[in-house]
Automatic annotation (TrEMBL), chain A:
Main localization, broad class: membrane
Bilayer-spanning residue ranges: 45-70, 329-351
Record bears the keyword Manganese: no
Family: Belongs to the CDC50/LEM3 family.
Membrane topology per record: Multi-pass membrane protein
GO cellular component assignments: endoplasmic reticulum; Golgi apparatus; plasma membrane
Protein name (record): ALA-interacting subunit
Organismal lineage: Eukaryota, Viridiplantae, Streptophyta, Embryophyta, Bryophyta
Species for this entry: Ceratodon purpureus
Pfam families attached to this UniProt entry: CDC50 (PF03381)
UniProtKB/TrEMBL annotation, chain B:
Organism: Ceratodon purpureus (Fire moss)
Catalytic activity: ATP + H2O + phospholipidSide 1 = ADP + phosphate + phospholipidSide 2
One MF annotation (Gene Ontology) recorded for this entry: ATPase-coupled intramembrane lipid transporter activity
Active site: 141 (4-aspartylphosphate intermediate)
Swiss-Prot/TrEMBL GO biological process terms: phospholipid translocation
Domain of life, source organism: Eukaryota
Keyword Phosphoprotein: no
Localization annotation: Membrane
Enzyme Commission number, as recorded: 7.6.2.1
Polar residues: compositionally biased ranges: 553-595
Record's GO cellular component terms: plasma membrane
Positions that bind ATP: 141-143, 280, 327, 350, 384, 465-467, 689, 695, 720-721
Protein name (record): Phospholipid-transporting ATPase
InterPro entries referenced in this protein's UniProt entry, alphabetically: ATPase_P-typ_cyto_dom_N (IPR023299), ATPase_P-typ_P_site (IPR018303), ATPase_P-typ_TM_dom_sf (IPR023298), HAD-like_sf (IPR036412), HAD_sf (IPR023214), P-type_ATPase_IV (IPR006539), P_typ_ATPase (IPR001757), P_typ_ATPase_c (IPR032630)
Length: 383, 1014
């Protein structure tokens, strides 16, 4: 490896020499600031006063940002409840007390059982619309390599999936010789619980609260990444309770064949893989303000089987601020960093006033220190 | 040629160390990948068929509970690929680029351009650039490297009057270092013998005539002659009081030699003399300049053209050459017997003062005392001195001697030598001294300063020369390798004590083996003594005076080691004293060392004056006191034992050893070790009379013997240095006028020795710094990628799913973070060359490997761990997908998190540069900010490509990240949180434990500031 540069240099030097010999010019190198390494440069020095200044300046800048950001996230109202256990316990019987995950899972896998349940929650704080509804899954590894790869980007675009894609999509690639659209396990395992919300307040007729489920995905996704000419076909064969008898798992939704992929925002949201095994996905939004005292009643179709793998399901209602949802991290971090900087700044100021080091004090030079040390100890040293 | 071996492949220490670190990183990578494989295997096995959305019943290498082992193995390989960033492959390419650029800087350095030979520096092995910043030991050739191998007649003393003005290199060096060498011989005032009235007027007359003339502007200067004194030149000598003696002196110069003239007698200026040594030629040239032009030699005659006065017609004189008693290193003198045109029969002699003065006629000794004094002064200023003497022969006596001598010369066999030797000894007695000469072996320009600064930089300098011990010692003084106040330890088989062994062997008829045995024992004993002195000398408390300490050393040592023992005795008879003192060969050296004492009137008080150290301590916190202490110390290393009194440093030692002794040492491991130990404790080592092979052997011995901690550089100009150059860690060739073999063999080549100083103290130091910083930073930045891949794996079931696609990752090392560090590798500086020369000690940080070592690697790895944690977990807190990151309620997906995190992953290492480095030109700023900008550009452009290309990056920046406040608030937060601890650490360090570099910068900065104010 080291010879590469050497070869290059050797060639260069030889050429230069030959050229100069021919031209009979002096070989004195030309002067430029660059070639003589005399470019003007700044050499910032951490002098005590500049240190103090830097810390306090940073601190003073951070703290207001932290306060404003924290205020924003504190203004967010969030309601959250976990419904997976409650919803199956309702169906506990003497024969199946639903005590173990296996039992629950077994219950879920029975197509013939009803699995809906109703849950009520009270709004305690004023919630300004839009109020976003999320479902949250726990211990669900959407980011598993096996899972992530099991889809075809080309197919979503309306192009025939490549062989590699199809192979990754296995076993959800083909059925009856036809390619499944969209192929792969990501689409196949689409979350299929549904939520209907009613309320005691008379915001709307019949007491139902309208949940807007459009525009919950990114615009680029629904308009460009998912093509509006592609319609689902043969999706979810195994789990379609009308066609498959021996399905062993439950979960995954049957896609509407008459609706192009770009219209199925649920699928679009689902197919944007989550970073962590616990994640939320946008379900829809309520476009009405909710006042304290309102009771919301959720009618849940609890289809999705998270019991087998010790997962969890929850429902969240949340408002947002300019910074996003309820997340104090940014605010607190800014405050901590700012506070720390100011503190450190003052500590340095204090230390500098108490015990200053004159700039350029030669007694700090290592060889001076060393010789002083040897002089004091008169210990043997080399040299 | 004769020593040619295939050029060895050399790799720098940093490179070798880097290899080890890479292996370590590789082990770490393996461990991490194994952990990954094991965990994913176990988890897959445990979870089994529970995770239905993975379709566990279908066979798949990534998730298959039935074949968990396979999942584990796949996971392992996945991990290898994912964490593979830990191995900085791009580093090697970058290093290569940087080293070539560094080499180009060296080549194009005007300061290292030699106008005399019109040659630039050359770099053959850019891979060794940084070695130049870590050199511990320099092995230097002498002739042609330290000296320009040109002898110039410089001064002479005739009948007790010293002639010759001008300043020798040594004097100039001493003056520059603020240490005038006492009463200078060029100043004629102390010469009380000088007749005042007449010469004064002559002087004045000349001054009027030749105002512009002087030692610096010498019209008579030619090769071999650099003498200026208006009293002698241009025939003015005839007006001197002792004109007859002067004439005789010149005649001896013109006759007593073995040089052969080459050229036509009619053109004296073109005449060249082929002589055994250049100094002999210099003497003949001098005679020519004084009007005694030697132009022809036959076996029996010597032809000299005399032109005494400028106007007079030249006169050809023929001298009958009778016998030549040749020069040998043992005899240290040469003589001829000659019959002058006027019929006088004379023996003319010239030789080392030690030998000639022993053979002086008691009654008609000539101006011995004056001559000795002058020659001592000449020696001190670095001149090679010879005494010129004669003897009037008695016709009868000579006849009988000549017959015996002719007989002896016709003997065939071993006896011939000793017989002629005896006869020479017989006739070379009862001499009368006429005067002495001082020839300057001209040092290359700037050598003493360069050597001195290199020594102050903590570099031990060894001179390996074919010259004899005396010459080497002289040059040692001339180029401040040997310094006043240094103790010279001499191990030589040419000393009289060693010769005693030979004599005894001769007498008792020892076998060859036995002689060798004896000599080996002698060398071994010498080494032992030297070692004891060196070690004890160091531990010796400073209260006792030097002489006391030395007296306590064993007797043999006392006689063998040339030291300033006999200081207290008067200076005049020193040389005699010394020669009695057994170290006969070393008289001159002795006289030089002693010169210090005799010159320093306060010498007697040495014991008292040893105390300024204590003073320095007392002043302690007081700033002025500290300054003084520093001054004293730097001065000390600057070779002064100035009048202020000797400083506190332990005595410095120099080892002088000859080739014969070396041969014994090199043959035996025990001796090698002892030798090395002595050498380590010596500041300078002079190896004399060494063969080219020995040069290489010694170099190898030291390089191997002292191990990785010491780095040897060899510098030489001739074919005989090739072995040494190849054997050393770094070889530097002098681009000499003749022969390019050394330059070809060297890794670097420079036009002059003094460029070595710049090559090491400036370029070497910078290169070491640059390469070190670069490697450390590279590790830091690539490791962050590795750690982050591992963190993300923790949350992804260890399945090895990357958060961002491959393009991000490959651009990280090639575009987003690669250029600024290369710029630093090429341009970084700490102090300016001027500051580097002012504080050569800064160089020691390279020798100690302070910029690249395991501790620093660990430190940077720790920084990378912390930074990567901040870079990963801070964005994760916002882009976890557990809360909306935008007012639109959207939660982040993996790609959103990946892109946001990658933004800070580009920002932090680029901005870390501002914290970790201290030198920024516009080029730095440009590339740092361009690198940062390139990330945003990349994510915009890449995100705009069709989804089948951009996949998960599609419109990521434009649509998802850029419009959100959290994204922009996150970036400064992460940068601050990441850099803060490092900043605090560096602040504390810069305030309370400042580096040498910082102090020096602060000083020049405050100096500049105060200048501004004025």
């Amino acid at each position: 490896m080291a010879t590469g540069g050497g070869d290059f240099l050797r060639k260069l030097q030889k050429e230069e020499e030959i050229q100069q010999r021919l031209s009979k010019e002096s070989r004195r190198p030309k002067y430029t600031k660059f070639s003589q390494q005399e470019l003007s440069a700044c050499k910032p020095l951490l002098t005590p006063m500049c240190i103090v200044f830097v810390y306090i300046a940073i601190g003073l800048a951070c703290i207001p940002v932290g306060i404003i950001t924290l205020q924003a996230s504190l203004s967010v109202v969030e309601l959250k409840f976990r419904y997976d256990t409650i919803c199956v316990m309702k169906y506990a019987t003497a024969t199946n007390p639903m005590l173990t995950d296996e039992a629950k899972s077994e219950f879920m896998q029975d197509y013939n059982k009803r699995k809906n349940c109703t849950i009520s929650i009270d709004v305690t704080k004023y919630m300004k619309q839009p109020i976003y509804i999320y479902y949250q899954l726990g211990n669900y590894f959407q980011n598993h390599r096996r899972y992530v790869k099991s889809m075809s980007e080309r197919q979503l675009q309306g192009l025939p999936p490549s062989k590699v894609d199809l192979n990754n999509c296995k076993p959800q690639d083909m059925v009856g010789g036809r390619v499944i659209v969209p192929c792969g396990m990501v689409a196949w395992s689409l979350f299929n619980d549904t939520f209907d919300i009613s309320t005691n307040a008379f915001y709307t007729e019949e007491g139902t609260l309208f949940v807007n489920k459009t525009a919950i995905s990114w615009k680029s996704d629904r308009e460009e990444r998912f093509n509006n000419t592609i319609f689902p076909s043969s999706n979810f064969v195994n789990n379609n309770r009308t066609t498959v008898v021996n399905a062993s798992q439950i979960g995954g939704s049957y896609l509407n064949n008459s609706q192009p992929l770009s219209m199925d925002e649920n699928l679009i949201v689902w197919m944007r893989i989550a970073a962590l095994p616990t994640f939320r996905k946008l379900y829809g939004r309520i476009e009405t303000d909710l006042h304290p005292g309102t009771t919301l009643t959720f009618n849940i179709n609890n289809f999705y089987n998270t019991y087998g793998f010790r997962g969890s399901k929850a429902l969240i209602l949340s408002t947002t601020s300019w910074i996003g949802g309820k997340n104090h991290f940014l605010g607190f971090s800014y405050l901590i960093v700012g506070g720390a900087c100011i503190l450190i700044g003052f500590i340095f100021l204090f230390m500098h006033c108490k015990n200053p080091r004159p700039l350029g004090d030669k007694s700090y030079l290592s060889w001076v220190k060393k010789s002083v040390a040897t002089a004091i100890s008169t210990s043997p040293t080399t040299m | 040629m004769q020593n040619s071996t295939p050029p060895p492949t050399k790799r720098s220490r940093v490179d070798k160390y880097l290899d080890k670190v890479i292996w370590l990183m590789f082990a770490l990578l393996l461990a991490m990948a194994t952990l990954t494989g094991v965990i994913i295997g176990i988890r897959t096995k445990q979870d089994g068929t529970d995770i239905w959305y993975m379709r566990p019943t279908e066979s798949n290498p990534y998730y298959n509970p039935q074949k968990a082992a396979i999942v584990g193995i796949v996971g392992f390989f996945n991990g290898l690929v994912l964490y593979g960033y830990l191995i900085p492959i791009a580093l090697y390419v970058s290093l290569e680029v940087v080293r070539v650029a560094q080499a180009l800087f060296m080549i194009n350095d005007i300061e290292m351009y030699d106008p005399a030979s019109d040659k630039r520096a050359r770099v053959k092995s850019p891979g060794l650039n940084e070695e130049l910043g870590q050199v511990d030991t320099i092995f230097s050739d002498k002739t042609g490297t330290l000296t320009s191998n040109q002898m110039d007649f410089f001064r002479c003393t005739i009948q007790g009057v010293s002639y010759g003005k001008g300043t020798t290199e040594v004097e100039r060096a001493a003056e520059k270092l603020g240490m005038p060498l006492g009463p200078s011989p060029r100043d004629p005032r102390p010469d009380s013998t000088r007749p005042t009235s007449r010469t004064q007027s002559v002087d004045n007359a000349i001054e009027v005539d030749t105002e512009s003339l002087g030692p610096e502007n010498n019209p008579y200067k030619e090769k071999g002659f650099n003498f200026y004194d208006e009293r002698l030149l241009a025939g003015k000598w005839v007006q001197e009081k002792s004109a007859e003696s002067i004439r005789f002196f010149f005649e001896i110069l013109a006759l007593c030699h073995t040089a052969i003239p080459e050229g036509t007698p009619e053109e004296p200026s073109l005449m060249r003399y082929r002589a055994e040594s250049p100094d002999e030629a210099a003497l003949v040239v001098a005679a020519k300049q004084f009007g005694f032009y030697f132009y022809k030699r036959t076996p029996t005659t010597l032809h000299v053209r005399e032109s005494l006065r400028p106007g007079d017609p030249p006169r050809d004189q023929v001298y009958q050459l009778l016998d030549v008693l040749e020069f040998s290193s043992l005899r240290k003198r040469m003589s001829i017997t000659v019959r002058f045109p006027d019929g006088r029969l004379l023996l003319l002699s010239k030789g080392a003062d030690s030998v000639i003065l022993q053979r002086v006629d008691r009654k008609r000794s000539g101006p011995v005392a004056e001559t000795t004094r002058h020659l001592k002064l000449y020696g001190e200023v670095g001149l090679r001195t010879l005494v010129v003497a004669y003897k009037v022969l008695d016709e009868e006596e000579y006849k009988s001697w000549a017959k015996r001598y002719a007989d002896a010369r016709s003997i065939i066999g071993k006896e011939r030598e000793s017989r002629t030797e005896e006869l020479a000894e017989e006739i070379e007695q009862g001499l009368t001294v006429v005067g002495g000469t001082g020839v300057e072996d001209k040092l290359q320009a700037g050598v003493p300063e360069a050597v001195d600064r290199l020594a102050r930089a903590g570099i031990n300098i060894w001179v390996l020369t074919g010259d004899k011990v005396e010459t080497a010692i002289n040059i040692g003084y001339a180029c401040s390798l040997l310094r006043q106040g240094m103790d010279n330890l001499i191990v030589s088989l040419e000393g009289s004590e060693a010769r005693a062994i030979e004599e005894r062997a001769d007498r008792e008829g020892w076998s060859r083996d036995k002689i060798q045995e004896g000599q080996k024992n002698f060398v071994s004993r010498k080494l032992d003594d030297a070692l004891q002195l060196v070690l004890n000398g160091h531990v010796n408390p400073r209260g006792t005076s030097t002489s006391e300490r030395k007296i306590s050393v064993s007797e043999s040592l006392q006689s063998a080691l040339s030291r300033s023992m006999s200081t207290k005795s008067s200076g005049a008879n020193l040389s005699r004293n010394a020669s009695k003192n057994a170290a006969g060969t070393l008289t001159r050296n002795l006289s030089v060392t002693n010169g210090r004492h005799s010159r320093n009137p306060s010498e007697g008080k040495i014991g008292v004056e040893m105390l300024p150290l204590v003073d320095g301590q007392k002043v302690g916190s007081n700033g002025e006191g500290l300054d003084q202490r520093e001054w004293a110390i730097s001065k000390e290393s600057a070779l002064t034992q100035s009048r202020k009194g000797p400083p506190a440093e332990p005595t410095e030692y120099a080892l002088v050893i000859d080739g014969q002794s070396l041969a014994y040492i090199l043959a035996e491991t025990v001796l090698q070790e002892r030798f090395l130990e002595v050498c380590i404790n010596c500041n300078s080592v002079l190896c004399c009379r060494v063969s080219p092979r020995q040069k290489a052997q010694v170099t190898t011995l030291v390089r191997k013997g002292l191990g990785l901690h010491r780095l040897c550089l060899a510098i030489g100009d001739g074919a005989n240095d090739v072995g040494m150059i190849q054997a050393a860690n770094v070889g530097v060739g002098i681009l000499g006028v003749e022969g390019a073999q050394a330059a070809m063999a060297g890794d670097f080549a420079i036009g002059q020795f003094r460029f070595l100083e710049r090559l090491l103290l400036v370029h070497g130091r910078w290169c070491y710094r640059r390469i070190s910083l670069m490697i450390l930073y590279f590790f830091y930045k690539v490791c962050m990628m590795g750690w982050i891949a591992f963190y993300s794996n923790i949350f992804a079931y260890f399945s090895g799913n990357p958060l961002y696609n491959d393009w991000y990752a490959s651009f990280y090392n090639t575009v987003f973070t690669s250029v600024p560090i290369v710029v630093i590798g090429i341009l970084d500086q700490d102090v300016t060359p001027a500051e580097a020369f002012r504080y050569p000690q800064l160089y020691q940080s390279g020798q100690r490997g302070e910029l690249f070592n395991f501790k620093l690697i660990l430190w940077w790895l720790a920084i990378s761990l912390y930074h990567s944690a901040v870079i990963f977990f801070f964005p994760l807190a916002i882009y976890s997908g557990l809360s909306a990151f935008r007012p639109g309620g959207q939660v982040a997906a993996a790609q959103d998190f990946g892109a946001a995190m990658f933004t800070v992953l580009v920002l932090v290492p680029n901005l870390q540069i501002y914290l970790a480095f201290h030198y920024f030109t516009w080029i730095h700023h440009l590339f740092i900010w361009l690198s940062i900008l390139s990330w945003y550009l990349f994510i915009i452009v890449y995100g705009a490509l069709p989804t089948s290309w951009s996949t998960i990056a599609y419109k990521e920046f434009i649509e998802v990240l850029a419009p959100s406040a959290s994204y922009w608030l996150l970036q400064p937060l992460v940068v601050m949180a990441a850099l803060l601890p490092d900043l605090v650490f560096r602040s504390i360090k810069s305030v309370y434990r400042p580096s040498d570099y910082q102090i020096v910068i602060e000083q020049s900065k405050s100096k500049r500031d105060s200048q501004h104010q004025v």
